[in-house]
């Protein structure tokens, strides 16, 4: 198991370096002058312009700036925005909100998606199976902003079941409606993936042997069928977690959630390159770590994976 963990850690290093270099390149090599954009319609003096260039290392060659950025990153310093705020402080304020939202959405789509997919797979071609596939198809077809506005209007305003926007302090109950919206989009994929995996697993010889040995259904289904069916589902959930963290920008904006997505969207509008690079880099690191944990979880769900060279 130790060798398996080390191999996965070594594979994560080039992914991290390549991703950070691409992010840094795409933001800082874009045409335009970020210093002039900071001043808007005003024109900075030569002294102001030179001071800001020196402060943000914009007077250095590109690769030198990238190495400086990596050095600061490994020291835990994410830099300062053009507004003079520490990115570390911004993330400490906004990231816990987005993390709570993403975790709540993951739990909702995992519990309900796996449950519905398991029942649909065990009852293939039944009425429940057809209805669940139809609902999942509808959810896949709806864009996130459409589903968010529909849920906000009917569940938040008309019926009053949830608060239409997140209140100050961001309590858990206020995050439930945006979490349902985020979970609903990936719920359809979890249902379909679980259903297909359950149908395939039930046809395997070891499942037939378990039934042939007289094991009860209440043991065969969770231990042999569900456990082996969860491997592709966990892969999907790993990707979903990164998508939820990064892609919650629209949902956070609609429901007024003070999270990382809202902050990143504002930084893009302000052309605040240091903040954009730092936030996206943190999101990439989280995505890589989550996928690393999922790889390690494979070894728990299927011990054969640990011994593949």
Q: How large is the count of helical segments?
A: 13
Secondary structure: number of strands: 0
Query: What is the percentage of strand-forming residues?
Result: under 5%
The main β sheet shows up as:
none
Radius of gyration: 24 Å
Give the distance, in angstroms, between the N- and C-terminal Cα atoms. Answer: 12 Å
Percent in helix: over 70%
Low-confidence segments, given as residue ranges, are none
What structural class should be given to the helix and strand makeup?
mainly alpha
Tell me about this structure:
By secondary structure, the protein is mainly alpha-helical. Helix content is 77%, strand content 0%. The protein is built from 13 helices and no strands. The chain has helices at residues 2-28, 34-39, 46-55, 62-74, 87-122, 127-141, 144-158, 172-202, 205-212, 217-247, 249-254, 260-270, 273-301. The longest helix is centred in the middle third of the chain and has 36 residues, at 87-122. The radius of gyration is 24 Å and the shape is globular. The mean pLDDT is 80.
SSE map:
Blueprint: H1 2-28, H2 34-39, H3 46-55, H4 62-74, H5 87-122, H6 127-141, H7 144-158, H8 172-202, H9 205-212, H10 217-247, H11 249-254, H12 260-270, H13 273-301
Helix pairs in contact: 1-13, 5-6, 5-8, 5-10, 6-8, 7-8, 8-10, 9-10, 10-13, 12-13
Question: How would you sum up this structure in a few lines?
Answer:
By secondary structure, this protein is mostly helical.
């Amino acid at each position: 198991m130790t060798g398996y963990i080390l191999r996965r850690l070594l594979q994560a290093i080039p992914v991290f370096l390549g991703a950070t270099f691409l992010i840094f390149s795409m933001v800082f090599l874009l045409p335009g002058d970020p210093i002039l954009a900071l001043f808007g319609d005003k024109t900075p003096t030569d002294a102001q312009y030179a001071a800001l260039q020196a402060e943000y290392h914009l007077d250095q060659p590109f690769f030198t700036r990238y190495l400086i950025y990596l050095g600061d990153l490994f020291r835990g310093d994410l830099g300062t925005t053009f507004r003079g705020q520490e990115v570390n402080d911004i993330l400490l304020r906004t990231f816990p909100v987005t993390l709570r939202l993403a975790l709540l959405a993951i739990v909702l789509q995992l519990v309900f998606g796996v449950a519905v997919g398991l029942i649909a797979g065990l009852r293939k071609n039944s009425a429940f199976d057809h209805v669940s596939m139809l609902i999942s198809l509808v959810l896949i077809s709806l864009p996130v902003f459409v589903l968010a506005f529909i849920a906000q209007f009917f569940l938040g305003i008309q019926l009053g079941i949830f608060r239409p926007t997140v209140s100050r302090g961001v309590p858990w109950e206020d995050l439930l409606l945006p979490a349902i919206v985020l979970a609903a989009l990936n719920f359809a994929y979890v249902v379909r993936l679980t259903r297909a995996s359950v149908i395939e697993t039930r046809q395997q010889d070891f499942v037939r042997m378990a039934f042939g040995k007289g094991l009860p259904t209440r043991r065969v289904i969770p231990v042999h069928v569900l456990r082996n069916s969860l491997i592709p589902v966990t892969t999907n959930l790993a990707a979903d977690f990164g998508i939820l963290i990064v892609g919650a920008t629209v949902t956070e904006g609609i429901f007024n959630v003070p999270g990382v997505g809202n902050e990143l969207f504002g930084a893009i509008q302000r052309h605040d390159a240091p903040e954009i690079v730092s936030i996206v880099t943190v999101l990439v690191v989280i995505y890589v770590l989550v996928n690393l944990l999922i790889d390690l979880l494979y070894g728990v769900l299927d011990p054969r994976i640990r011994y593949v060279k």
